[in-house]
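Protein 1 of 2
SEQ + STRUCT:
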Amino acid sequence: MAERSTAAVDVADNSGDKPLTAKADQSTADGVAQNPERDTDNDEAQGSTGAEGPGKDTSPPELHSGHKLARRYRLEECVTRLDGFSSWRAVDEKLRRAVGVHILPADHARARNVLAAARSSALLGDPRFVQVLDAVEENDLVYVVHEWLPDATELTALLSAGPLEPHDAYQMVSQVAGAMAAAHREGLAHLRLNPNAVLRSSTGQWRIRGLAVNAALRGINSDTPQRTDTESIGALLYAALTQRWPYENDAYGLPGLPKHIGLIAPDQVRAGVHRGLSELAMRALVNDGATASRHEAPCTTPEELVKAIGEMPRIRPPEPAFTAPPEYQRTTYQQGTYGRPAPRPGATQPIQSPPPPLQSRTGKALKWTVSALLIAALGLGSWQLADALMNRGNQSGDSNNTQTTDGGEKGKGEAKPGTALKIQDAREFVAEGDAQHPEDVGKTYDGDTSTTWRTKTFKEGPPIAPYKPGVGIVYDLGSAKEISAASIGLRYTGDHTTVELYASDSLTPSSLKAMDKIGSVSTSGTDATVKLTKPAKSQYVLVWLTAVPYSGPDPAEYSDAGYKQALTEVKFTG
């Protein structure tokens, strides 16, 4: 097989990514560039089939569906066969889960670099990236095993339906920039960030795949890795706002910009684009000669981009559209026309006469039965009315008479519906990581709404995960009580706070799994009321926050801007 240039492949395969900062493997000779429309990073496209790319003198290993690696990873479907390596969807038979696998010969020119990149990426352990699970050299093969996310959707697929809403685009660029800033602090770069490498999970979180590995597979490196990744994030935001790739070449199913006009701001490409996000995209893309629409400095590192995002006013999600319920219409069966032909327009309709009374023996028996039941009901109602009047007369002399239980002691027994339940004690529950402010839990039931227990400030949200599964406080009601509702006062408004209630068996439960979830609610206001559909009986109740809103700096609470919440007063009713 004749040699072809991997340098040409890497530049063309970027399909509009800035090629001047990326250096391809120089071990091969110059050759013919690949058509950029044929490969848009399908090496990891879940469910897609990559196009056959230019070959090297080292051919991909001859593998097939059903082949096992390490007697554990069963290959299922080849999604890419390109430039000496292949990528597969596989099954980890040991853990019974889907995984992705990159495979290349051990004597491939890039095999050592791929192994090193995969192992470095695995050490990062940041859940915002698709995790590398294994990196092995075995039987003349090098293979890298990574997570497979069946419930995630590529940005490419999302943009095929249209541009993202401003809030979605804001969340995407915030989470991607934050993740890349963390990676660069550990000395890791991506160098191939594009719409196929960014995924949105079913929970709304954005994940990045191929950190360091995608570039190593193609022999790409950069003298300015932070600047390269920052510009790629700017290109992702540009595409999300305009449904166009910010270069002249079409790529990733998106049309490029018109030729010979240069890079223009997103709000000049498409009407209705958010002005702040448009300027942010230009500040990230200014590295390629673009001019920011205002005088802010360009962003040349992911850290600078994160800071610029933090200085923007937060973009809220759109209000849900209210749809009136359809007007109730009786069916033709209810209207008495079932089985009859439809009337002709304008025709006079005969008056429907009622059906004849039941004349059969069964009908007569039914009539006597109904009559007897009516007479009995009338008699019972009269007796109950008389009894009520007599009781009322007997009680008229003591207007303060109160029903007693337990031998006549007033006020003892189970709490009645709507009765406030007194909190006896409380402890902060820590499911994972560090505590929040355990010394302040008593302030949530001291009767003073000006005192609070607050969470730490998180950089991303509203969901607290993946930093923590949640944060909260376990309350002791003194004894087992029936709980019908909980009212939680909140300090910060915004989209959104999610509160869950759990019944616990102690004030210091062992884990969240050891408790029973009894209710939940989400709110954007300062009050969260959890009404249980079925009353639960418990002495200990966990108030658990799993999502918190974004809020600016709060000097009164000594907290910075970010995603956070504070509880003012917690009350339970039975």
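Protein 2 of 2
SEQ + STRUCT:
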Amino acid sequence: MFNLIDERWLVLRGRDGESVEVSLLEALLDAERYEEPVVDLPTQTPVLFRQLFLPVMVAALGAPANEHEWADRFGAGYFSSTERKKISDYLDKHRDRFELFHPRTPFAQVGGLRTAKDETKGAALLVATAATGNNVPLFSARSEADPLPLTPAKAVHWLLHAHCWDTAAIKTGAANDPKAKAGKTTGNPTGPLGQLGVVMPIGTNLYETLMLNLPIGPPGGRGQPHWERDPANSTWDTFDPPGLLDLWTWQSRRIRLIPQQTPDGIRVTRVVVCAGDRIRSLPEWEPHTTWNFRKISKKASERKPRRHQPGKAIWRGLDAFLTLEPPHQGENGPETSLLLRQIGDLQDRMPEGYPLRVATFGMVYGNQSAVVEDVIHDAMPLAVAALKPGSLPYDMLLDITRQAEELAQAVNRLSDDLRKATGADPIPWDKGQRPGERVLHALDPLVRRVLLGVRREADDHKRLEAGQLAWEKVAWTKTWQIVDTLFAALPAGSFLGRKTTQDNGTTVTCRPGAADEQFRRRLTAILPRAAEFHRQAAKDRRAVHQDPEPQPLTAGA
């Protein structure tokens, strides 16, 4: 009825920018002809790669055994005729398991799944952006009572999305699930991707993106995708993924799509969604996340996946992307993803100046992770050379992102001092918008231009150094534009200052002039190249106009 191998259910963007409908087989065999999937929600992108593209590729061709093999396959730029045949033969071998509405083994579902009372729910239950139960997105134009018929193509996307990102908490109990109570199961976690911040390297086309997301080895072993195993039953268990393909195709829910013939064709109008398998602990070889180490004792640290923060640009987490080695035992700190570290090791085998991009994906849950509040997605260019500690691109990018954060902190401190000078309390860090956020917003397009420039000129040190000066000069100007608005908002009487009592009991007078002086010192320390440029420019102006050096005032002046 609807086989993913042959039906044109995927939408990919071609090299000419046009969107093309293709089958799973066409997407893989001609991967070099397409750029990326066209999806309804950004979080569907890593789903397609982990649940389908990458597992089929690894299962049919195997993962590269070493760096040399990876470089040969990446350099080829497309699947050879032998590889194309292997992919076709592999999919033919498992053709029945890719049938979406197969009566016994429907793809990524449990055939015959039912509840004790044969209850079903609307297909909107699968759609993260649709109103259903407690999950009511802000400003949603739909209610749970409104039907949401899904075409088979849309149903596949949301089916796989639910396995990866579904909300947590209570799920419908399957009829033969002994752990179900009163027709429900409790304590269910979110889908596996909902528990981490997804980080994906992106190439210039689909083939290169597949290779960039292909771990060498692979660590943890090959494992099996769900279509190579016996069909899942309706009950769930908790265990560790036996291998990479098990992790990528994890069935975190037991689902059955219920198709219906309509005047518009087959539509999925009702579904059954129950608890699925739980991962006992995320393996250290999970390739699509960066990590945080949290000190738990003098000699031990706890390692957990980093979550993306809503509203925080991707470049503000650049330190984690470029931290290729974990911190020492018993220390706090980030560590980059397995795939970014691998790309850093492979940079000498990649084309010079390769236009790598890094994309992030995440889901923000609310109310005990039972509702979806927001979707996180961002992308940035990244110089492959920056994945080598000690290189100029590496040092430059870390300097720039550090400077941006420090500029925001300096403006926030200035704001606090100016508010004290008027008798007001500083803005709480967790309430309202602090002016430092305006600085980061103003610097965002500039930082992205710098990232693109560094990627393009990674091997030209003179241009990189000139670019770093240019960055500091513009950052200096942008920061002062925001600082000027803070001073302009001061009431006239505030320049006399206000007396405040510090925590140690001493009384000090807070004046805008003193706050301005402290801010200038901080700005000079944060942007030393721009500060030196402005000092030299002022000196040159005095020399041209033969202005005398300013003299200190005397009592008789």
